[in-house]
Amino acid sequence: MLNSVERLLFVRGVPIFKELRDDFLVRLASVMEELSFPPDYSIVTQGEEGQSLYIVVSGTVRVHIEERDLAELNKGACFGEMAVFDSEPRSASVTTIGECECLELKQMQLYDAIDETPEFAINIIRLLSRRTRILNNKLNDYLANSQAQDFTKVGSNSPKM
User: Fold this and answer.
1) Can you give the pTM of this predicted structure?
2) 129-138 long-range contacts, CB within 8 A, separation 24+
3) How does pLDDT run across 48-85, given as a tens digit for each residue?
């Protein structure tokens, strides 16, 4: 468990909280709940309603859809933000790899924080933009590889001369 000073220092280093005022961070850090999870624990389940954003304090989590891994997130990374903003069901599951501690920021706390400090919303938009770019690059690579394989299959089925 983090004491109040450790929690502030940790929160200050999290990318979505960068460049925000210390007085704001002190208040925000004080309302977040610290949660401990055992290994192989599903923190977030795909398809469920989401009311919280989580920040990894220690340990590692895997983001996955069924058995397909999408990402591993470590200290300082956040997850759960999509469902908090769009009120859609969770798009993926998040499971601990080992013991893990997270800070939880509930939807209303998040909205209040954005009302008070709009720069916070900009940081979250930057995070979502980075993640979208990464997924676009992965999709582009996947499609390029699929088309190359399709071309190879077509070439191997050509009549021999």
Assistant:
1) 0.80
2) none
3) 999 999 999 999 999 999 999 999 999 999 999 888 88
DSSP string, 72-105: EE-TT-EE-HHHHHH-PPPSSEEEESSSEEEEEE
Q: How far is it, in rounded angstroms, from Cα 25 to Cα 16?
A: 11
61-65 vs 93-96, strand pairing mode: antiparallel
> Facing residues of 33 across strands?
104
Per DSSP, the chain holds a count of helices (H) and strands (E) of: 5, 8
pLDDT digits (tens, 9 = 90+) for 110-143: 888 888 888 888 888 888 888 889 888 888 888 8
Judge contact between 60 and 73, C-beta under 8 A.
yes
Q: Tell me the domain boundaries of the chain.
A: 4-156
CATH of 4-156, one of 3.40.50.800, 2.60.120.10, 3.40.50.2300, 1.10.600.10: 2.60.120.10
CA distance 44 to 32: 17
Mean pLDDT for all residues in the chain: 88
CB 123 within 8 A of CB 18: yes
- Spatial neighbors of 15 by CB under 8 A, at least 6 apart, are 76, 123, 127
